[in-house]
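haha ok so turns out i had the wrong file open the whole time. this is the CORRECT one, sorry everyone. sequence first:
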Amino acid sequence: MPGEDRSDVDASLRLAQELADLGARIHAHTSMPLPGTPWREAPPGDVAPETIREVARLSRRGALYGHWQKQRDHAARLAAAADAYPRPGRSRTILPVVER
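then structure:
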């Protein structure tokens, strides 16, 4: 998700591993800057190579599924569309905008 750092990703992977060890199946997603969400203008989700390796390992053992790889491509296209068609001065969220 936007704002996550490496320690957040590592914690998520540790949790996924723990859940997989208990028999859970994890549905993985890549963050996408979807229109109508607070993250519309966020950078597209990308996955570091070490994270890809761990996710692939969980997938091979049947503990993880989803279309996260395709979502990486979709996220890049959505971000490009948001850049190509900016909406200055208009809220892009479905949530109230809080000024800071």
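Strands lie at 26-27, 64-65.
again sry for the mixup
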